[in-house]
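Homework help board

Subject: predicted structure for assignment chain

Our instructor gave us this sequence and asked us to write out the predicted structure in token form, then describe one feature. I got the tokens but I'm not sure how to describe them. Can anyone check?
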Amino acid sequence: FSIVLMPLSAFINYEYFQERYGSFESQYNAYQQEEVRSWNMRAYRAPELLSTVARGTEAYMPLYFRLSSDEDPIQPGNIEAQDFSTLSTFGTFDFLFLVQIVFSLLAVLLAFDMVAGEKERGTLKAVLANRVPRDTVLLGKLIGGFLMLWLVFVIGFLLMALVLLVEDARFGQAAYLNRLLLMFGLSSLFLAAFYSVGLMVSACCHSTRTAIVALLVVWVVLQLVIPKTGEMVAAVAVSAPSQESVRIDKAKAAEELEDEMRSQSGTIFTRTTGWTSMNGPDGRSAFEMLSSGEPDAERFREEYQAMSADYQQQIRDRLRQVDQAYEQAKARQQQVSRSIALLSPAAALTFLVTDLAGTGDASYATYREAVGDHYQIIDKELLSRSRARRYSVQVGGSSFSSSFPSDDEDAPEASDMPVFQAEAPSVGAVIGEHAWAIGTLLVYLIVPFLVAYVAFLRYDVR
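My token output:
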């Protein structure tokens, strides 16, 4: 498993990374070559190099967010997910999958007969007939048995690291190397925790048959049942609207306020120009008159822009309320889900490794927050000016939309805007965010050993 699967997973997932990065690069270069981008501002995020080790949610993250002056200004762009099939439900073949599923199972299979097997064969009586303390015997079984697994795991990890370095020299840089070593350390702690669980069950059983059945049940519960149960319980206990329903609510709220604004625009148009239809008494159209710069057109422009700014603020406030209600509900749901999932060391390792790789929930949240901060700059410097020039008039049963002539000679261009940059959470931020996850791994290492120790002390050799 170590010599074949770990290097193979690195090779396969690096090819996947290159494919996704190639798609990102082609789209980003095409976007940079557009002459006019003010209507199509985008915040691109390059795929993470460490997705080669742990894909996480990488396939579901958008390559960019579209920034516009529309009512719903920040929307995810295309998602470069592969064509998924039912085979995708078996998990992603990467380093995290191998540690979480394959090596954890090997750990419990190596530990199941460490004590129970010796009880069944009667060799434990001979061992305990010597003057070696029982705690020393048990600790030796924990350390010796785990080292047998860990040394093979080290060989596999080094081969995987070698493949990664051959594929891309950037893996040797300190920023990536430190994260890889931290992933290795946390994975080692995870395997030690599962080995400790296996030793506990073995110490509490008197036959290898009972021990192996009990351990397989425990493994399934810790690996599969608890993480999925957390997600299901959270979905039932804490209701949260779907993204589609949120989109519909936002569109409905914006449409209602826009209808009011168009109706109000007709009143302003009639009052400032004296026209009661889209065609004036001199035969000109409303568009021609509003583009002329004459006093009536200027009066309409001043009043309309003041009214429009007020309504645009109302729209943004209403949409922000819908978004905040959705985000709060999702945050409560995720908190319940995470609290239950953290009862499993598998979920704890997943949270830690994916965020270290830049492909976890915290990484996406950081990206989304950076997009919001970038939008504030773009909106202030560029989009708000474009939005202020637009108008829509409804009068005399007819309506039309256009833009006022621009009188801002120093108006910035899209090319003048700062380039968006998204960074993965720092190592310190990941550790701080997932301190409870590290605590979960330590609990599963220490508590099962203490239980095994008590059971071993109480074992009667007669």
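Reply (TA_rk): Your tokens look well-formed. For the description, you could write something like this. The two ends are 41 Å apart (CA to CA). That's the kind of observation they're looking for.
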